[in-house]
Amino acid sequence: MASGYSAKEEDGHHSGALGPAGGAAVRSRKPDNTAFKQQRLPAWQPILTAGTVLPAFFIIGLLFIPIGIGLYVTSNNIRELQIDYTGTESSSPCFACSQNYSWNMTTPCVCSVSFSLDQPFESNVFMYYGLSNFYQNHRRYVKSRDDSQLNGNLNSLKEPSKECEPYRTNDGKPIAPCGAIANSLFNDTLALYYNDPNGTETQIQLVKRGIAWWTDKHVKFRNPVGDDSNLTAIFQGTAKPVNWQKPVYELDSDPENNGFINEDLIVWMRTAALPTFRKLYRIIEKNSSTSPTLPRGNYTLKITYNYPVRSFEGRKRMILSTISWMGGKNPFLGIAYITVGSICFFLGVVLLIIHHKYGSRSSSADLTH
Amino acid sequence: MCTKRSGWVRLLYYRYLYPCTGEENWVDSRTVYIGHREPPPGTEAYIPQRFPDNRIVSSKYTFWNFVPKNLFEQFRRIANFYFLIIFLVQLIIDTPTSPITSGLPLFFVITVTAIKQGYEDWLRHKADNAVNQCPVHIIQHGKVVRKQSHKLRVGDIVLVKEDETFPCDLILLSTSRDDGTCFVTTASLDGESSHKTYYAVQDTKSFNTEQELDTLRATIECEQPQPDLYKFVGRINIYQERDEPIARPLGSENVLLRGATLKNTEYVYAVAIYTGMETKMALNYQSKSQKRSAVEKSMNAFLIVYLCILLSKALINTVLKYVWQANPNRDEPWYNEKTESERQRHLIRAFTDFLAFMVLFNYIIPVSMYVTVEMQKFLGSYFITWDEEMFDDEIGEGALVNTSDLNEELGQVEYIFTDKTGTLTENNMEFIECCVDGHVYVPHAICNGQILPGALGIDMIDSSPGPDGKEHEELFFRALCLCHTVQVKEEETVDGIKRGIHQGKGTSFYISSSPDEVALVEGMKRLGFTYLRLKDNHMEILNREDEIERFELLEVLNFDSVRRRMSVIVRSGTGELYLFCKGADSSIFPRVISGKVEQVRARVEHNAVEGLRTLCVAYKLLTFEEYQDICQLLETAKLALQERDKKLAEAYDAIERDFILLGATAVEDRLQDKAADTIESLHKAGMKVWVLTGDKMETAAATCYASKLFRRSTQILELTTKRTEEQNLHDVLFDLSRTVLRQHGSLTRDTFSGLSNEFQDYGLIIDGATLTAVMKPDQDGSTGNYKEIFLEICRNCSAVLCCRMAPLQKAQIVKLIKFSKEHPITLAIGDGANDVSMILEAHVGIGIMGKEGRQAARNSDYAIPKFKHLKKMLLVHGHYYYIRIAELVQYFFYKNVCFIFPQFLYQFFCGFSQQPLYDTAYLTLYNISFTSLPILLYSLIEQHINMDILKRDPSLYRDIAKNSLLRWRIFIYWTFLGVFDAVVFFFGAYFLFDNTTFTSNGQMFGNWTFGTLVFTVLVFTVTLKLALDTHYWTWINHFVIWGSLLFYVVFSLLWGGIIWPFLNYQRMYYVFMQMLSSGPAWLCIILLITVSLLPDVVKKVMCRALWPTTTERIQTKRKCLNVEQSTIFMLSQTSSSISF
């Protein structure tokens, strides 16, 4: 590069009559004797030798193994139950519903699945629905939304983003909420009944608040605010997403959970990372300190079967899970920690041997050298 | 008198020598009408020629063309062009990442470069304006007119006063001095600060007032401008009242170059011949051909590999995408329908998909690598200029970096070609002795050029010469006093070569471009003959009897390196004509017809073995007729417009013959400070040092012994003319190669038997003539054979001395080695103009700021004040630069593999839909801010070993020889490490996300959290990997490494903490905070970082323990010593505390 030359010029050496390469006639520039310029800054000079790394390996081993065991035990203590209600097998109770499905069905197809809990679920129980082979992370799908519309922007409400195509308008009216994600909102309704040994069937209270991120619900998603406080009026002139049965302002009777701030919608709008995923559906709160949230016994899951997955060979599951500080049941972290800890420990031992056998040899050889 | 001869004779000669043939070549010359005055009618048609004005334009751009031209220049670089293409693809087709991701970095790079170049150009504009507007004095119609410099035109007569700089290339017409000479320093052109004498043409020197000049009618015919500063061929035709114009030759001694400064002369009048961009100075600023370093070549090779990886990745994904999409329910499930336009299925769709994948993975080619490498080289080179140890107080200068492109090449040098005089030696000559007819004279009391009072005595070692000898002796001394081009300078403030001579009337100095001459003239002074001055073409000598002798100087046949001799023709006071010649023995002896040749030759050889520089002196008496012929011959040659040099050489050859030998001189050139130590270190560092010199074999060999290039134990192999005269070349070569190879065989046997005693090392001496024979292409095509054998011999010699080399031969040797089959990295170092060719030829050219001018330093890549500085330059700076840039290159590829490979893996889980894993901001900023500064800093200040150790233990240099840190093996290791880390990041996050929650409130995370988790692990791992590789932790390292991690965290918090109004998506909103609020995410990050770093740490520790390199041994040893020292210190402390 010519930059080498030009650098000299910038040093203020412009032997006027000379022009560009006048830098050659630089006289007597004794360099400063600063530590930085002489590359002699004081420095810590660590070297990775067997000796120095050894303790680190042992420490990692000693730290990781207990953490791993802790994680593993925690994970094992978590109760989890999964029920696949897709209904592709003819024996399955939802077989009929899954077979004769059409979007514009007037009467909802309901099926119920019975199951029993061998052990009670003690603390709060979280109810998830799970989908498999559903590509929420497909690029075309991920970008098919309008965040400013969901944030309550009135302009975007009337004029949704281009990204929403082909779910942007319907019959000339803008769709609210637009886009493929919103359009494919999971619309099965799950209800859980406890079958008392005495034969009565009691519905279990499912809480639908607190399933979405607090920031999403309160900041990122907002209903548009108009002259009228009535949501219906504000959404006037928009169309409901094609696959929805109800418009967005009728998602829930509770005004705090209606419109764009409906938590089911918010949960769905957070696209999953992988094609097999679960999403939080409801929370079963622990009522009393004495009885378990879900006692041992028989239960019935009643499903209003709306959501078709057969076309893309998907599966639908309902999951009941308790939660610890580390979340749901996942033995991965525990096992990984134990494995890595053990490997480090083992490597530590190997290095110790090497250090004793070779470390002394090489250093003595050096000293004679 | 030659000069008084009438012009028409010369013209006749001219016409005779150049019949019509000359005419066609006239296109190459220009005619300048002095003062724009037409010559008298009838002589030649006045053809007004158009020449550029005197405007200097060193700037590249104007205000208007800056943007397009600069952009064009920048996009000519392949990397920028690549990113431009990517950017355009992003703009045109629907791609996964927004155009910002590649547009912003590109814009950044382009803008920064443009600003830098714009600023530089602005400075150039300013400098140009200052130059172009500075006033000059022009003679118009007999009056002095002030004009701005850029309005000067060819043919204008210019008045230049003392200490002014010449505004363009001028032909000297007349000066304030009567003899028509002026003194000029060309310090700013070639760095030579000595005053050079320039001559006005004899016929114009009397025109030294404005009015007189107005009457001058003359034209100048000269060649078209060419960049060689020391060559000029021209002719001036002066029209007088008579019909026939007078033609005079013009040579470089008549040309005042732009940029040079007038000294010691009140004023000069001169006529402009080359102006503006056609001046020799401007022509010399054209950039030299670029050299590329070995590292850059490997870098480009790696880049091609990565380009292939990128293409194959994109191709694999495209194919898989179409395989996967074959099922329409996957291609377009009900929940994710395509738009109408997307449904149009063309072949072009597949191609756009391929391009989209390219765009998604394009970050694997690190855009910022080029920027970082350039910044590293540019900033890093300052450490060379800043180095105090490479600063020389004597000349007040430190090292200079002319190109920063080759910094790392300094760490890769395998062959060093060094000049002898001025490079290995001081070029600070001292007269030691002289020998006249076999009698030796030694001036005593030599005190480095200062003579002690009463030290005019002479020691005569041999018996006193007889009366005949006495006469010869005095003639010899006079010859040396007369046969030179030394000037006397009566001032103290002269840079360059200073020698004081006390003459009662003040201090004066001898100045010459050749230090030998100064030494000789001074030596003569000590022997009783003092050269006083040149006045009115008469040289004055103060002889032993304090009488002034005057000799009229008639002709000077200047020294050149081909003839290796110079002559003067003088007329003594008594009217005798002498031709004195001094030169190298080889060029004098064949031309001698009488004199005591044997005795002198014996003495010369004796002195040469001692390492002294010898010159022989001879003379002949000329009759007037002979002199006339000589004059004619010279005039003819000097008048020639074409091939003047060749004709001059022929003339000189004809004149300088039939000498009578007078004697010989011996001058000592001391070795430079620490030259031997430096050479020894370079040897230990595994470099082969070749000395290329024009000196004779014996002198050069003596220097080689003194500088420890040859040791006493070295077996010398000779490949010289002397030997090839006895045997033929073929046999000699085979003999030598057999000798060398036998040693080679025994060496391997020795290593088998475990006897690793010192094996015989060989030194080769070859001379120029033999080298030509070796290199000469043979008729039967067996030349390659000779060359190969020669190279084979050279490879096995630890040192090679090439003597009697012409400048071009030096370059030939360098070329020969450079293109031999191992392609070693060569370095050439020299100080003189004769070394320029090899400096330009070698991979790295180093110039020494020597006494023989600045050409070498100007043409070099690096310039250092002294030879000893080469040691630090190579062993410390070169070593550092190499390891720094090697790590930089490898690390850049590594961190981009880590970056992009997870994205590749993610495609398998998102239906090959080109969904990016990371957010746009992360994609954009990863290379420009999150991971850029630590590696830049590392590549600037890393020191794996202390510089003192590097200097003390040169063998460490062998550890990095042959580009060892950028071998394919290591490159593949880094790439696999990158792939491994990427797999760890991706699948670690995958299993953590696997169908479960990891928050304590049961809420789920989405794909952006997944990407952010991977990205966080990525940034930390990549930065910590560099931290593990850093061996030199200054506070800056701490600041930058921890600072950039902190910056990442702060940025992420900010980026996710606000609903950014200008963005049309808010996908990162609170993603980072939510992730950090989850315990398992933290645990996972820590785990993944540990796992990613583990293999590299284990590999490093294992390699260090089991197969340590020398470097690693030294590091460990130093560590042990440190520990020991600190323990001892602690012990002493405790003991002292106890004793108290």
TrEMBL record, chain B:
Any one Gene Ontology MF annotation carried by this entry is:
ATP hydrolysis activity
Question: Which reaction(s) are listed as its catalytic activity?
Answer: a 1,2-diacyl-sn-glycero-3-phosphoethanolamine(out) + ATP + H2O = a 1,2-diacyl-sn-glycero-3-phosphoethanolamine(in) + ADP + phosphate + H(+); a 1,2-diacyl-sn-glycero-3-phospho-L-serine(out) + ATP + H2O = a 1,2-diacyl-sn-glycero-3-phospho-L-serine(in) + ADP + phosphate + H(+); ATP + H2O + phospholipidSide 1 = ADP + phosphate + phospholipidSide 2
Q: What EC number(s) are associated with this protein in UniProt?
A: 7.6.2.1
**For Mg(2+), which residues are the binding ones?**
D419, T421, D831, D835
How would you describe this protein's topology in the membrane?
Answer: Multi-pass membrane protein
**UniProt key word Acetylation:** no
Where it sits in the cell: the answer is: Cell membrane; Early endosome; Endoplasmic reticulum membrane; Membrane
Membrane-spanning intervals of the chain: 78-93, 301-324, 354-373, 921-941, 971-993, 1005-1027, 1039-1063, 1069-1094
Q: Which GO terms describe its biological process?
A: phospholipid translocation; positive regulation of myotube differentiation
Q: Which residues form the active site?
A: D419
Q: Which residue intervals define the domain P-type ATPase C-terminal in the entry?
A: 857-1109
Keywords recorded for this protein, A-Z: ATP-binding, Cell membrane, Endoplasmic reticulum, Endosome, Lipid transport, Magnesium, Membrane, Metal-binding, Nucleotide-binding, Phosphoprotein, Translocase, Transmembrane, Transmembrane helix, Transport
As cofactor, the record names:
Mg(2+)
> Where does the record place the P-type ATPase N-terminal domain?
48-102
- Enumerate the PROSITE patterns for this protein: ATPASE_E1_E2
Q: Where is the P-type ATPase A domain?
A: 135-198
Summarize the subunit comment: Component of a P4-ATPase flippase complex which consists of a catalytic alpha subunit ATP11A and an accessory beta subunit TMEM30A.
Family that this chain belongs to: Belongs to the cation transport ATPase (P-type) (TC 3.A.3) family. Type IV subfamily.
Query: What name does this protein carry?
Result: Phospholipid-transporting ATPase
Q: Which organism is it from?
A: Scleropages formosus (Asian bonytongue)
